[in-house]
DNA sequence: GTCCTTTCTTGACTCGTTCAAGAAAGCCGG
DNA sequence: CCGGCTTTCTTGAACGAGTCAAGAAAGGAC
């Protein structure tokens, strides 16, 4: 894979170019929806001795700069993805936690507008579809659900 | 307030009627969107010596039985509400974590259907609107945001 | 190359949540 | 109304993702 101009991306948003940040961005390029542990492991492929703290800091900086997006479904640790700026949502498997992308359900952003806003200034509508992935559906009840929340159609 | 027939509710879903469970349900009646700590405190108003563990167990049992619903926005501890079965969503303040109810944006359940399902069997579409509540908007930038995630219109 | 600022390393720590073992309470049948 | 079985609660320890803090190292502007 050609070296992504990740450095330019970083400079473009006013962040210093450091090895941990580059490694984190490239890790997310390879692993969409990686959780924090995955990111740490993957970043260490490029920078074997990065501290977990550096990864946390990098993820926070990248998230704040808008280069990555954080997703954190109930009962799962934080996950991150590089796909930002477009308008998409997620399907999450209740059993194994697998995440898949779903294009916006209704068309363009803002795809949803609340029926009442209670005076809030709304800047984002986050949509998570919950269900069972094909693999877990096939495995049936042999798998142990991680999030036993009762399915409440909403 | 007349004693709610919380006991019947519990029996109705096949759960034993215990003092902690009753106290938790009544606490959630008083405090919509209470977090775990609030529930523990509120339950102790009725049952001063309930263990936190009993509250966790009760919340888990009630959630599984469908009597309460768990909400857990990024960066905040789990919250619970009694309003279940109807079709509503939430607005969450990025600054102070306040939650308000919003009736379903599009009408009836299922209010959203994903444009692609990747073979998942979908049972719920969860919608969270992120923004700033009136109080925090007024307070301006003096408050410390708890979730600095960049607003990514989706 | 120098210097200032930001970022990384190291290591301890917090706090929500879970686990485990035994005691207590709910509930069913008689 | 009581025995007995099962579920639930108490107690106390443990877990783990994430955070905090102080000093060392690296980025980048001049």
Write the CATH homologous superfamily of the largest domain in chain A. Winged helix-like DNA-binding domain superfamily/Winged helix DNA-binding domain
Helix count of chain A equals 5
Interface with most residues: A-B, 58 and 58 residues
CATH fold topology of the largest domain in chain A: Arc Repressor Mutant, subunit A
Distance between the termini of chain A: 42 Å
Structural class of chain A: alpha+beta
Q: Outline of chain A, from the CA principal axes?
A: globular
Q: Poorly predicted ranges of chain A (pLDDT <50, ≥5 residues)?
A: 141-154
| Proportion in helices of chain A | 25-40%
Radius of gyration of chain A from CA coordinates: 18 Å
What are the secondary-structure elements of chain A, in order, as H or E?
A: HHEHHEEEEEH
| CATH hierarchy, class of the largest domain in chain A | Mainly Alpha
The domain count of chain A comes to: 2
Q: Approximately how much beta-strand content do the residues of chain A carry?
A: 15-25%
Based on the structure given, which CATH architecture of the largest domain in chain A is correct? Answer: Orthogonal Bundle
Q: Going across the major beta sheet of chain A, what is the strand order?
A: 1-3-2
